[in-house]
Design goal:
The complex is a heterodimer. Helices cover 76% and strands 2% of the residues of chain A. Chain A is mainly α. In chain A, helix 10 runs parallel beside helix 12. Chain A is globular. By secondary structure, chain B is mainly alpha-helical. Chain B starts with a helix and ends in a 13-residue tail after the last helix. The chains are: A mainly alpha, B mainly alpha.
Chain lengths: 495, 114
């Protein structure tokens, strides 16, 4: 089949979002089922792209309007993009099913539109091959995320959204200044051509430009000190949206950051940019783990835990080696699975019992055994206990840090895991050994989704090799810039 | 050569940043955000500006070599539209906050903490 069909990944959610008002007139639940239909179609296309890229080993490059890059704009679906577009689509499918029971607030048609645009934005950020396009997709993601955070229309959600808007506004301005500096010195916005010309760039300008881009993307990627919005937004947003934030909005920004940094690896001042990212990542881990310890609200606690995991991924990316990037991608996959499981289960508990405070979880093992089991699997996996998937990626990150001689980073990862164990075991204790309660009947569909994710966690934990192979190929896609440049059919302009 | 527009752009960015960091009133913070965006847009435009050349519209006597770089102008158009969307979104959230809290002072809007 023709690779140009991969453009449907961008076109389908966009067109479907405009069709939502049509379905609104067809009954109360039509919009919700339409949402499931579109995300299922998107999953189908993403699965096809994934199969195509991984069997041929060649990236799919979509060229808009037949204009060759850098004059035209291209989408680049390499190993990394194919894998994560699939993850985005599957997570969106799960959350759209979850939305049926989780989102009762009206107007549901606006929710569906914003949901589709959020999915589109994250997909675009991963697929695009042009840094200004990246900015546009980033802003689509950000604006829909602001709106969805405020969706519940409570004081808390409005406050969380406002914090997000202000930080996001500063971040996008910084990102744009970075783009302006790169454009001003290289005269191109195409990623492949930037990589080609990067050696001619003035080191100081490149350093400032990259630092500004890192700071701009750090808002979406939740790196310290620009992550103050994240716990609030996670707590106040509707439960399915929290799942999406943690599972792929953050990942898309992290990927964009890693991609732009590695594009410019020939620049002399590259090492100092990596050091900036390492410091930000390490601080993110420390601050988030300590903040997670004193949380009373379980959703907020898991949000902080999620931020800490993001810190690990950024740390792995900032090592500047192939092993580090591979480990980071592997941790991204595992973290996406685990956090979808946890936020799904916690969100479901919060809907059923009317809140996510720690007291509500007492006796959950007797009241909702299936959900309690799912939370336990997720919690144990996040700590990094062997036979669960996160164990392997944490080991890979530690090995990668030792390879470049950062012993302190390995110690940081290990001690952060100890802190994680403290607060997750407190949660598990409350679930299994405290409180009494009547059995509540659990939803079959959500139970199935949780069971599937928990099974995935254990299967990857026992047989990590297949997923590690996927992560390794995806990591090479980011790290091997020479191959990236060769894959994009550049016109002979400027080079 | 460093154009004088760079200084204007960076001054605007810093004024906006100052307003965001120091002001207590939510609306003033949002005005700061707008000023900062304007500064960034001016910076982008000034990167494509070449002294003495004309607008990038092909017409009599103006070929590609006599025109300024059109790409930054296209980028700024996009960035302005995005900035307007963000501002509109922020103002509607500010209305919601005023309804729920009865104030726009950021020091009193502190229900989420910890």
């Amino acid at each position: 089949m023709n690779g140009q069909y991969a453009a449907l990944l961008i076109a389908l959610p966009l067109i479907s979002a405009f069709f939502v008002p049509v379905f609104k007139g067809m009954g109360k639940n039509a919009v919700r089922y339409f949402l499931i239909l579109v995300t299922a179609l998107q999953t189908g296309i993403a699965a096809w792209v994934f199969k195509e890229v991984y069997t041929t080993g060649q990236p799919i490059i979509v060229i808009a309007g037949g204009w060759k890059p850098p004059v035209g704009i291209n989408l680049y679906l390499g190993h990394f993009a194919a894998l994560f577009v699939l993850i985005i689509a599957v997570v969106s499918l799960f959350t759209s099913i979850f939305s049926i029971s989780a989102v009762k607030t009206e107007p549901i048609d606006k929710y569906a539109m914003l949901f589709l645009l959020l999915m589109l934005g994250a997909t675009g950020m991963i697929a695009t091959g042009d840094i200004f396009n990246l900015f546009v997709f980033m802003e689509i993601t950000a604006i829909t995320a602001y709106a969805l955070t405020a969706y519940n229309k409570t004081g808390e959600s409005a406050e969380a959204s406002m914090k997000y808007i202000i930080l996001g506004g500063i971040g996008s301005s910084f990102f744009l200044i970075g783009v302006a500096l790169i454009y001003g010195s290289l005269g191109t916005l195409n990623m492949a051509q930037i990589a080609q010309l990067a050696a001619t760039m003035d080191p100081t300008v490149a350093q400032v430009g990259l630092a500004l881009i890192i700071l701009g993307l750090a808002v979406e990627a939740e790196l310290f000190p620009l992550n103050a919005w994240a716990p609030d937004a996670y707590q106040a947003a509707p439960h399915p949206i929290t799942v999406m934030f943690s599972a792929f909005v953050v990942k898309a920004a992290l990927y964009a950051m890693a991609r732009i940094i590695y594009l410019m690896q020939v620049v002399e001042s590259w090492g100092s940019v990596l050091r900036l990212l390492i410091v930000m990542a390490a601080l993110t881990v420390v601050v988030a783990e300590l903040a997670a310890l004193r949380q009373k609200n379980v959703k907020r606690m898991i949000a902080y835990s999620s931020i800490a995991q993001i810190g690990f991924i950024a740390l792995a990316f900032a090592l500047g080696t192939q092993a580090g990037v591979d480990a980071g991608v592997f941790h991204m996959i595992n973290h996406a699975i685990v956090k979808v499981l946890l936020f799904l289960a916690v969100g479901y508990v919060a809907i059923t019992l009317g809140g996510a405070e720690l007291e509500k979880f007492q006796g959950l093992g007797r009241r909702m055994p299936l959900t309690a089991f799912a939370i336990s699997v997720g919690a144990v996996a996040t700590i990094g206990i062997p036979l669960f998937n996160v164990f392997w990626s944490k080991i890979r990150i530690i090995l990668a840090t030792l390879n470049v001689g950062y012993t302190w980073a390995a110690v940081l990862v290990l001690s952060a895991s100890v802190v994680e164990a403290v607060y997750y075991f407190r949660l598990l204790h409350a679930i299994w050994f405290e409180g009494e309660g009547e059995r509540i009947s659990e939803s079959m569909v959500i139970g199935l989704m949780m069971f599937f994710l928990a099974a995935l966690v254990v299967v990857i934990g026992v047989y990590p090799d297949y997923v590690w192979e996927l992560a390794r190929k995806a990591g090479e896609d980011i790290f091997n810039v020479a191959q990236y440049v060769k894959n994009v059919p550049l016109m002979g302009v400027g080079a | 050569m460093i154009s004088v527009y760079y200084f204007g752009a960076i001054a605007l960015i810093l004024v906006g940043l100052y307003a965001i960091l120091v002001k207590k009133n939510l609306l003033k913070i949002l005005i700061g955000l707008s000023i900062m965006e304007t500064g960034v847009n001016l910076l982008l435009i000034s990167i494509g500006y070449v002294s003495g050349k004309s607008a990038p519209i092909l017409s009599e006597g103006i070929g590609p070599s006599q025109a300024v770089d059109p790409i930054p102008q296209a980028l700024v158009l996009t960035a302005i539209v995005i900035g307007v969307a963000t501002t509109a979104m922020a103002l509607s959230v500010a209305i919601l906050i005023y309804e729920k809290y009865g104030t726009l002072n950021v020091e009193e809007i502190r229900r989420l903490r910890g």
